[in-house]
TrEMBL record:
Name used for this protein in its record: APA family basic amino acid/polyamine antiporter
Keywords: Membrane, Transmembrane, Transmembrane helix
Compartments it resides in: Membrane
InterPro entries assigned: AA/rel_permease1
């Protein structure tokens, strides 16, 4: 059986050899690196515009990360670790760092939309790619819906703090919380959908402005906090010892994961080989510095009880610790801006993953068509925006949002595994950036993700399994038959095993 081999170790089946070999290993067939990296040049109406640079990509990472994590979760972390929550932020950043290194290598080497889905297609085969893609659709969609609900709550908090009134419960909360329709959540999702339809350059500019505003508000908090710092609040520093620090880190970990959304926009980066590693690693570094300074300022400004007992811990710290009563309105406004940018970046990521799966034929390909006017997958973006808006408006989210955690960690495991596989399967393939000490550092990244996954509730694992089972049914009925690896045999790559 003939097998043609391209540069860098990539290979493609000839048409004559395709039927017999792929028939036995088609679900483990990998996309060749050559076909993936050539994807943006396909002249089939699915080409995205390369329109953003390193600064805008970095802002996407910051925009997708600094949100409710620092404005809200710091209180929960303080309740678990006390003032040592500062160390929890550092530990969570270290845990993310190993996966960020792997994302940086794969994003610069395979600068194509899809993030972990695309990387899995190139390293672990089509079936695993479908599983992680289906997982990411849920992760991003539920995440956006949950963030939108949080945006509505913060909008009401801002109205209350600034003007002394709130929206009626009937239009401000979902049926789960005693309302009829969460209108603010619907509004923010549809508004962001419109921005995303207009173009990636426009979306990146809007996000850059929002990132600047929320970072300015956090700088304001840091300055006031350290000007009124009380070392007495740091005693006892770690009341629950190491266990408390680790438990808080597991909670805080998910405040760092926005950097992976950068890789979903790989195909729209002007200079992906240089800009993507810079953006991924720089955004994680900047976010970590802000998180550590804000958390240190917070525990020095207010007691652990004051932080953990408030839904707006930073505002409570300024009010109780510094006596700035109008700070609640300012911090509520900052939280609104922060959550808006997170919502924009995460919904952007979901559209690009869904787009990649449609372009590969695993989902309807006509949804991957790019609007000639806007240069974006407008039809797909509107469809996902409407579905997420309905989810945010009506569906109870208190339990399903836990699926975001397991989905993210699962993606981290596969991305780290992909870097190891590429090292040995395609050692000569050109890489603009390489993970140092491979496979040691990716293995540590896998270990961190698996360690955090083991403590997730059994109900979360069950729901995750049900969602994946539903996805496998769709793959068997539609995706397997319509995959471009079958409809266009020349795109097939060598199988994962038996090479």
């Amino acid at each position: 059986m003939a097998l043609t081999t391209g540069p860098g170790g990539g290979g493609r089946f000839s048409r004559l050899a395709h039927d017999s070999r792929v028939a036995t290993r088609n679900m483990t067939t990998r996309r060749s690196l050559e076909s993936l990296t050539a994807e943006p040049d396909d002249n089939d109406g699915t080409q995205l515009k390369r329109a953003v640079g390193a600064t805008q990509l970095t802002a996407l990472g910051i925009g997708g990360t600094i949100g409710t994590g620092i404005f809200v979760v710091i209180g929960e972390g303080a309740s678990l670790a006390g003032p040592a929550v500062v160390l929890s932020f550092v530990l969570a950043a270290v845990a993310c760092m190993f996966s960020a290194l792997s994302y940086a290598e794969l994003a610069s080497s395979i600068p194509v939309s899809g993030s972990a889905y695309t990387y899995s297609y190139a390293t672990l085969g089509e079936l695993v790619a479908w599983i992680i893609g289906w997982d990411l659709i849920l992760e991003y969609g539920v995440s956006v819906a949950g963030i939108a609900v949080g945006w509505g709550g913060n909008l009401n908090a801002f109205f209350d703090n600034a003007f002394g009134w709130e929206l009626p419960t009937a239009i401000a909360k979902s049926p789960e919380d005693g309302g009829v329709l969460n209108l603010p959540a619907v509004f923010i999702v549809l508004a962001i959908t419109l921005v995303l339809v207009l173009g990636v350059r426009e979306s990146a500019r809007v996000n850059l402005v929002m990132v600047g505003i929320k970072m300015a508000i956090l700088v304001f908090f840091i300055i006031i906090a350290f000007a009124n710092f009380s070392s007495g609040n740091l005693t006892p520093f770690a009341p629950e010892g190491q266990d408390g620090v680790v438990s808080a880190a597991a909670v805080i970990f998910f405040a760092f994961i926005g950097f992976d959304a950068i890789s979903t926009g790989s195909e729209e980066a002007r200079n992906p080989k240089r800009d993507l590693p810079i953006a991924i690693l720089a955004s994680l570094a900047i976010v970590t510095v802000f998180y550590v300074l804000v958390s240190l300022g917070a525990v020095g400004l207010a007691s652990t009880d004051q932080l953990s007992g408030s839904d707006a811990p930073l505002a409570a710290a300024l009010d109780d610790g510094a006596g700035i009563t109008w700070a609640a309105a300012l911090l509520s406004f900052g939280a609104l801006i922060a959550i808006t940018s997170v919502c924009l970046v995460i919904l952007f990521g979901q559209t690009r993953i869904f787009y990649s799966m449609c372009r590969d034929g695993l989902l309807p390909r006509n949804l991957a068509r790019i609007s000639p006017r806007f240069g974006t997958p407008a039809r797909l973006t509107v469809l996902l925006g409407v579905l997420v808006a309905i989810l945010a408006a009506l569906v109870p989210l208190s339990e399903i949002v836990k699926l975001v955690n397991i989905g993210t960690l699962f993606a981290f495991i596969l991305v780290n595994a992909g870097v190891i596989i590429l090292k040995y399967k395609n050692p000569e393939f050109p890489r603009a950036y390489r993970v140092p000490l491979n496979p040691l550092l990716p293995l540590i990244g896998i270990g961190f993700a698996a360690y955090l996954m083991k403590d997730l509730p059994g109900e979360t694992w069950l729901r995750f399994a049900v969602w994946l089972l539903a996805g496998l049914v769709i793959y068997a009925v539609y995706g397997y038959r319509h995959s471009r690896l079958r409809t266009e045999p020349d795109r097939a790559a060598r199988p994962v095993v038996g090479e």
